[in-house]
Amino acid sequence: MIKELEEVVDVPCVHICTVVPISLTVGANRIDPAVAIPHPLGNPALSPEDEFSLRRKIVEKALQALCTDVSEQTVF
Amino acid sequence: MRLELGYISVKDVKFGEKTELRDGIVYVNKAELLETIADERLAKLDVDIVHPGESVRICPVKDVLEPRVKVSGSGNVFPGFFDDAKTVGEGRTHVLRGMGVMTVGKIVGFQEGIVDMAGPGADYTPFSQLINLVILADKVEGLKQHEHEAALRMVGLKATRYVAEVSRNAEPDEIKVYETKPLQEQLLEYPGLPKVAYVYALQTQGLLHDSYLYAVDAKKILPTLIYPTEVMDGAVISGNCVSACDKNTTYHHLNSPVIYDLFEHHGKDLNFVGVVVSNENVTLLDKERSSNYAAKLIKSMGVDGVIISEEGFGNPDADLMMNCKKIEAEGIKTVLITDEYAGRDGASQSLADGHVAANAVVTAGNANAVITLPKLDKVIGYVDAVNTIAGGFDGALAADGSITIEIQAITGATNELGFNRMGGSVI
After folding, report:
1. pLDDT, mean of residues B371-375
2. What is the complex's ipTM, to 2 decimals?
3. Is residue B364 one of the residues assigned to a domain?
4. Smallest Cβ distance to B207: which of A19, A25, A38?
5. Domain that holds residue B240
6. Number of folded domains in chain B?
7. Segment B34-42 mean pLDDT
């Protein structure tokens, strides 16, 4: 999906992904590490407030990555 | 550790007044079995018997087990579930060869499988070749999924243990001996032969994707050493509702071809030194930690080569590759066993992850391959589950009773311990 969007539609993408090595293997250029496979943007062990804060950080990092020029595969 | 496996060939399984083994036939007192496995979490329990070649479709199948009982030596089969987890793997164990115990019922997750006892589907599952004691169990209203899984898991273990008891005093038709010495002794036993270990990765993603080692939830372990004969005594069991084709049922663990075939070669062209049990968890940190730890253990064992098996697919491909590259980085050769999800036409990328060090890989087949299975005369369970299980899809069940599915939905079709008749090799 990410490769198609970048190569065919020419839209920059960020891959929010738990298993970063897979993201590198499949060729994502901007990678934002996530929490865990069943809950990439959440953490049920945290309080709702802390979980919201965690989610916000990951999304803000993704937006920042989207606005950053990269010349090679980059893990943010 | 030295284990004698005494195989008793089962000629047939029948219901009878007394649960016993007589003239090679296992008789089961149905009422007593139902009483043994009763569980307040389960609403409806029933038992059926199916034979190879019968026109029967069983679905959804959760687990398949093999009756084994400890005759001598410490502990019990399935250690930790019924006792204080005494170490197993020594002495003698009796095996009822040719029969299986199968747990079936309303679907737990969405990844249980299909076993056809006849027709084209039977070729894809090894369990069509067994006489199966099928346990049907439905949950009580409102039972949560993880409790449903636990209840069915215990029903399978209890039923298997109950049946296995009939073989305790039987005279085996064949006795095979398996022995692994303590590590420092085993390393010296066959000078000149390559020393080989096995990294046994278990599916442990949680949320109904779990395996148990001595009854410990294996996602909570660090990789650890185990004698292969401990595995033969049920130290590793399945609690998995993961995709049917490449999950290891408890039957697979008890009969892992990787372990038995390594023993076949032991002392001839290699020295089978031991097994490292590892896991496949859901965070990157867990994956890195477990593969670091497995590679460290392998290095400390001083072996020349390692076989690494995967369970499941997708993100566990990353565990497989991490184990491979970290062990190869220590100068130790690896061979990987996996299966593929290469799309229905076989043209897509077949693994989610890869590495240049993974240059010797055995595949158990493409799980996305599509097959149509004709209607069979009898269904045990709920065949409409094929519309929702992994490998099935909405509309998989046709009006004429035939089903069209990916072989992913067939229990054991692409098993990554090699317990199947499909496969190929890429070197």
Report:
1. 96
2. 0.84
3. yes
4. A38
5. 2-176+188-426
6. 1
7. 96
- Percent of chain A as helix, strand, coil, to the nearest 5: 45, 15, 40
The share of chain B scoring above pLDDT 70, in percent, equals 98
pLDDT of residue B56: 98
Q: Who among B282, B317, B321 is closest to A38 (CB)?
A: B282
Given this model, what pLDDT does residue B425 score? 59
- Pairs across A and B, CB distance < 8 A: 37
Q: What is the pLDDT of residues B112-159, one digit of tens each?
A: 899 999 999 999 999 999 999 999 999 999 999 889 999 999 999 999
Predicted model pTM: 0.94
B183 located within any domain: no
Residue B263 falls inside a structural domain = yes
Among B205, B210, B283, B286, which would you mutate to test the A interface (most chain A Cβ atoms within 10 Å of its Cβ)?
Answer: B283
The boundaries of the domain holding residue A67 are 2-75
Whether residue B182 is contained in a domain is answered as no
Q: Could you tell me how far CA B172 lies from the centroid of its own chain?
A: 24
- From chain A, pick out residues whose CB is under 8 angstroms from the CB of B315: 18-19, 22, 37
Per the structure, the count of domains in chain A is 1
Q: Tens of pLDDT along B39-70?
A: 999 988 999 999 999 999 999 999 999 999 99
